[in-house]
Amino acid sequence: MRKYKITEGTKGILRDGRKITLHRICAERDFGDVKKGEQGGWIETEDNLSHSGDAWVFGNARVSGNAQVSGNAQVSGNAQVSGNAQVSGDAQVSGNAQVSGNAQVSGNAQVSGDAWVFGNARVSGNAQVSGNAQVSGNAQVSGNAQVSGDAQVYGNAQVSGNAQVSGNAQVSGDAQVSGNAQVSGDAWVSGDAWVSGDARVSGDARVSGNAQVSGNAQVSGDAQVYGNAWVYGDAQVYGDAQVSGDAWVHGDARVYGDAQVYGDAQVYGNAQVFGDTQVSGNARVSGNAWVYDIRHVFTAGPIGGRDGFVTFFKDKGGGISVKCGCFSGNIGEFLEEVRKTHGDSVYAHEYRLAVETAKACIRLEEPDTEQGGDGNDKTGRA
Questions:
Q1: What is the pLDDT of residue 377?
Q2: Is residue 204 packed enough to be buried (19+ CB in 10 Å), middle (13-18) or exposed (0-12)?
Q3: Distance between CA atoms of 19 and 24, rounded to whole angstroms?
Q4: Which of 180, 280, 289, 326 reaches 20 to 30 Å from 295, CA-CA?
Q5: What CA–CA distance (Å, rounded) separates 200 from 307?
Q6: pTM
Q7: What burial class does residue 369 get, using C-beta atoms within 10 Å of its C-beta: 0-12 exposed, 13-18 middle, 19+ buried?
């Protein structure tokens, strides 16, 4: 049964340089929130608005081209739906929002404000796209996800769950933002990167490549996480720090300043790595590490019966801590463990030699003042 008719009211618009005529609609029966005789918005042909369901075009909204509005969907305000776009289910497009190209908005999704959904993009579930946000390409926004502000989601990117992308943030490529994760500010998430859990990426931070940021981790400032790097747990990477390669930063670790963590290195526990230092290779910096100079870490290996690696690093107490396999402790404890395990074997000799080298190479001296000559705090204290 027909639910609306085309009235004599018309409006001309330009499409691809040609004038197109839109027609005002009027309800012919009661349905949903619409009463018989109520004037609606503008459509180009009856193919634009289904006669079944409670779908409706309100106010100054317009639907044109091969676009279709169906189900219980609503298009209102000054919204525009055009091209081959589809708005279906209980979806709402309102305000000055635009849905165009081959885009689809479905489920209970909402597109509002000055938002634009175009290309082959999909917005579904309870997702919301608002403000000046744009979702384009083959991007998908689903679940309870929100894209707002001037944020952009494009390429093959996916934003799902309860994730939020806001501010001037961009999510692109094959990147995924999910769970309760938030990407905000001027941050970018690109490539095949994943941001999930309760993670936060903010400021001018960049997460790219195959990198993953998860748990309660935070990446902020001008920090970069890329390659196959993982940042997870309650870890924080900020300032101008970089985590790359196959490196992991996790636990309650902090990497900041101009510090770099790369290769197969791991920084975890309550470790803090900052300043201009670099942690690389197979280094394992953990516990109460307090590393802010390249001479605060020494890694030896392959060493011992398992051809493994041993890492010596400056700790917050001003001494040298050791991480070797399952062992964590100070140098004295490490030497005792070596004695009990290896006696006077060649492996014991290797470990004792590594200890003496570490003691010679690691600089434990604090600077004479709290600040260096450039006015920057070299100890990392505020």
A1: 42
A2: middle
A3: 16
A4: 326
A5: 38
A6: 0.91
A7: exposed
What's the pLDDT band for 329 if we cut at 50, 70, 90?
A: very high
Token pair in block for residue 127 = 């997702």
Specify the pLDDT at position 106.
98
Output the pLDDT for position 367.
55
Contact (CB, 8 A) for 49 and 30: no
Ordered DSSP codes for 23-74: EEEEESS-BTTB-TT-EEEEESSGGGB-SSTT-EE-TT-EE-TT-EE-TT-E
Radius of gyration of the chain (CA): 29
Inform me whether the pLDDT recorded for 141 exceeds 80.
Answer: yes
**Concatenated DSSP letters of 255-289:** E-TT-EE-TT-EE-TT-EE-TT-EE-TT-EE-TTB
List b or e across 206-239, with b for residues whose CB sees 16 or more CB atoms inside 10 angstroms: bbbbebbbbbebbbbbebbbbbebbbbbebbbbb
Q: How far apart are the first and last CA of the chain?
A: 72
With a cut of 80, say whether residue 163 has pLDDT above it.
Answer: yes
If you average pLDDT over every residue of the chain, what do you get? 94
Phi, psi of 268 (to 5 degrees): -155, -170
Give the span between the Cα atoms of 279 and 290, in whole angstroms.
Answer: 12
